[in-house]
Amino acid sequence: MRTIDSVEKKFALARACIVKLRPYYSAAIYRMVPVATDEILTLACDRYWRCYYNPTYLESVSVLTAATDVLHELGHLLQRHENRCTVHGLEHGFFNVAGDFEINDDLREQKDLDLSKTAIHPKHYGMPVGLIAEEYYKLVMERREEFQALLDANKPGFQDCGSCSGGKGREWEYGDPSGNARGVKPHEAERVRNVVARDLLNYARKNPGSVPGDLERWADEILNPKVPWQTMLRSSVRRNYAKRAGMSDHSYRMPNRRQDFYGEVIMPALVDPSPGIAVVLDTSGSMDATLLAEVLAEVRGITRDLSPDDGVSVFCVDADATPAQQVFDPKQVKLLGGGGTDMGVGIAAAERHRPRPEICIVLTDGYTPWPKSQPSGMDVVVGIVGSKDAHVPNVANYPVSLPSGISLPQMDRGPDKPPEWATTIYIS
Ligand SMILES: [Zn+2]
Questions:
Q1: CA of 115 to the centre of ligand 1 (A)
Q2: Are residues 283 and 366 in the same domain?
């Protein structure tokens, strides 16, 4: 006979089983709040880490199956499926299927677990294993009608996993954590993910080969998030823009209306700050032309937003800097082989340009020396186009030729990495 006690004990045993088999999940598994309900057929979870279970179902399966089911729900939580679905405005029924594929193909591989026979698996639908949910979502949407029918029929394996997998809170969920409705709030969830990621990598170090590679990659991404270069470039240019806007309340660009009163001394005027932007483009070396086209398109978008009136001056640099021009069409940019590049020449040319740009974006493969000190009145954002691993060489013996008439007394030919005073972004 089933009693509440026996079902609760089953859930507790499932948790203990997970902690024994996968100790690195301990921090997360004890944050999940079990909730018995007859409104779902098997297990589900909400975005606040409440794990709902049907008592009859839980009673009918082994402790190991229950543990694997709980791990499945935990997978949705750790992988942030709810957030990934919501941010991109995806349809949660289909994203639930995609998330299940992402989780189940890993669980099925782990022979000491017992994934239910009815659990859906990408192979059952002729799809490759090892994809991420967004990739499965795309494949599922290509066969939308077929999967819609499976969802509508509520076929085994196609049951809703709850708001942990995406979409709004379901009617059987408790809603925001408050009072007795305990739950894990999003910022706490982030901390739990960090602890699990750290524990998982520690465990993997002590027990080589014991943790699936996908999980190690997940943990690495949680602890070392890779922000897309587009976001970094945009935010660093905007940050410099905001700083410049704050500083340039007084500008010499427009004459002060009371200028006559002050005679020969030119007074700054209060202007609506719109910093000029220069782009210094390295046309030598080994930059990937396709990637460069992407970077230029991104820079064009950023500068259009920030400096629509002033436009952008572009300086193409190999050993010399070309006169400022509007070059955003990558077809107009001729990439030359070999060395001899000096981004300092381009930065100096931007500095001499009038009106002087206040932000200088340097796009280079990094094979260049750099000026020792920051140009006055100009912030520099350096985009290293290419792989971070293919790092720049020591340029101590690098051939540098300065055009006549240009002197760069502060040039330092020693260091091979971009200067501290510049904001550097690695683009690859
Ligand atoms: Zn699921």
A1: 12
A2: yes
Classify burial at 351, counting beta carbons within 10 Å of its beta carbon; exposed 0-12, middle 13-18, buried 19 or more: middle
- Enumerate residues 6+ apart whose C-beta is below 8 A from 371: 344, 347, 348, 408, 410, 411, 412, 419
* Amino acid identity for residue 136 in this structure: Y
Residue 361 CA: distances (Å) to CA of 97, 234, 279: 43, 11, 5
Instruction: Tell me which DSSP letter residue 336 carries.
Output: B
d(CA 160, CA 37): 14
List the Cα angle 164/167/172 in 5-degree steps.
Answer: 70
Q: Where a domain ends, among 177, 198, 223?
A: 223
Tell me the CA–centroid distance for residue 177 and ligand 1, in Å.
22
What pLDDT, on the 0 to 100 scale, is given for residue 423? 85
- pTM of the complete model: 0.59
Domain assignment of residue 289, given as a range? 229-427
Please give the distance of CA 325 from its chain centroid, rounded to a whole number.
Answer: 33
Report the number of distinct structural domains present in the chain. Answer: 2
The single residue listed with the structure tokens 């082989």 is 337
Query: 132 CA to middle of ligand 1, Å?
Result: 14
Which pair of structure tokens corresponds to residue 215?
């999980």
Looking at the fold, whether 218 and 236 belong to one and the same domain comes out as no
328 shares a domain with 362: yes
C-alpha 98 to ligand 1 mean position (Å): 9
Distance of CA 331 to the CA centre of its chain: 29
pLDDT at 396 over 50: no
Output the CA angle 148-154-158, nearest 5 degrees: 75
Q: What is the pLDDT of residue 272?
A: 42
Q: Is pLDDT of 333 > 80?
A: no
Positive or negative torsion for Cα 108, 113, 117, 120:
negative
For the segment 167-205, what is each residue's pLDDT rounded down to a tens digit? 889 999 998 888 778 999 888 898 899 999 999 999 999
